[in-house]
Amino acid sequence: MADVQTTNQSILVVGGGMSGITAALEASEAGYDVVLVEKNPYLGGRVAQIYHYFPKLCPPNCGLEINFKRMRVNPRLRFFTMSEVSGIKGSAGDYDVTIKTMPRYVNENCTCCGKCAEVVETEIDNPFNYGMDKIKAAYLPHPFAFPMRYVLDPSIVGTEEGKKALEACEYGAIDLEMTETSFDLKVGAIVWAAGWQPYDASKVEYYGFGEYPNVITNVMMERLADPNGPTGGKIVRPSDGKEAKKVAFIQCAGSRDENHLPYCSGICCLASMKQATYLREQYPDGEATIFFIDIRALDRLEDFYIKVQEDEKIQFVKSKIAFISEDEESGDLLLEGENTRTGKQIRETFDMVVLATGMVPNGIALEEPPDVSFDDYGFLTLDPEKPGIFGAGCVRRPTDVASSVQDATASALKAIQTIARR
Length: 422
Ligand SMILES: Cc1cc2nc3c(=O)[nH]c(=O)nc-3n(C[C@H](O)[C@H](O)[C@H](O)COP(=O)(O)OP(=O)(O)OC[C@H]3O[C@@H](n4cnc5c(N)ncnc54)[C@H](O)[C@@H]3O)c2cc1C
Known about the structure:
Elements: E1 11-14, H1 18-29, E2 34-37, H2 61-72, E3 77-80, E4 83-91, E5 94-101, H3 115-119, E6 123-125, E7 134-136, E8 138-139, E9 151-152, H4 160-168, E10 181-187, E11 189-192, E12 196-198, E13 215-217, H5 218-225, E14 246-250, H6 268-282, E15 287-292, H7 300-309, E16 314-326, E17 333-339, E18 345-350, E19 352-355, E20 359-361, E21 373-374, E22 380-381, E23 389-391, H8 401-420
Parallel strand pairs: 1-2, 1-11, 2-3, 11-23, 13-19, 14-15, 14-19, 15-16
Antiparallel strand pairs: 4-5, 5-10, 6-7, 8-9, 12-20, 16-17, 17-18, 21-22
Helix pairs in contact: 1-2, 1-8, 5-6, 6-7
Residues 14-20, 37-40, 45-47, 50, 53-54, 84, 193-196, 218-219, 222, 267, 271, 274, 359, 362, 393-394, 399-402, 404 line the site of flavin-adenine dinucleotide.
């Protein structure tokens, strides 16, 4: 069980993505004791799964590593992975919180030698790559994972495979006796930075996601382009491994649609433009077509839009794609719809389609949820009548990393103000 001493002058941060990490670092570097809980076995959130950042097109691991370095030297900040809040009681300035931690079955002796994975044969869907490939049931979540420590999937605990992993470990790092534990914290304020999840593209039935293997989503495309992804960075079709050289990006796949997500997620246009550059970088003869309703690229991001438009092999078509069908033999995809600028019908075949699906906020799923306010779409709002728990980043609105970081810094200040008043 974790030994954590906190008081009502301490701050809890829920979610270890870019927003949660930022809020935790800012508050702890200002002199406050902070506990950060993250449900994944690693920190970094969705950003860790992105290949390159728009607009600079640099890898996000650099920025994450700078933050992890700040965390390593900060004694005021404690973090717990595979952990979630299971209960919150009290009010601003005086919360009693219970944290539940799932067993990792691997302790801090792990050197990441990988011997456990060598002897284990069972494979599971790789959650980091959105299930596009398999990993051994003893695994490192991803090559830059922080903390850098293996995880054993519960499916092999209590089996011969679990025993084999235990015997293969020379460092005594595998502990098959680990169980779910919980511990209590007293805190004065909470920053809720649980982020977002991709909208379920299979709900947009007319695009065939889940039915046609070569229809993928934007988050999958990030993994496909990544050298550490399921194909070693090759942008190829899931159906047959063929080079995907002619790719359609469909914007607002379920977004700005009363039947799905009525709001705009703000970043999808930029994400598709960025992904079109992945394609063009890989295939000099590759062609990307971005089917859009309107392009949303504001301020400095407009410069990126202008730059991407300079590439004549990246087409922007103002349109509404109504339907996708698959040629069963070739796996090619036929897009049908209307060019809303010319009024002409669109009927064009592509190797692969990337659906730009929007961001859905991760709410507060507790049996007895605390008293906080949400907007009509489930995003946390800042309600002066309900101080003490502050949303940060994409739980407050769908947005990019730079804005998430600013928002998280503001939420750290709000949390500090709450406890400083006591
Ligand atoms: C396809 C795509 C590409 C993108 N590319 C870019 C880009 O190039 N540049 C850019 O600036 N932005 C980009 N974004 C946006 C970027 O992903 C977000 O701005 C960023 O993820 C926001 O960080 P966050 O910490 O708010 O949320 P998240 O990254 O979602 O992190 C939230 C964390 O909270 C954890 N969590 C969730 N629930 C709980 C719970 N109950 N208890 C404990 N932990 C919990 C999650 O596991 C996660 O680690 C892209 C988005 C998409 C969809």
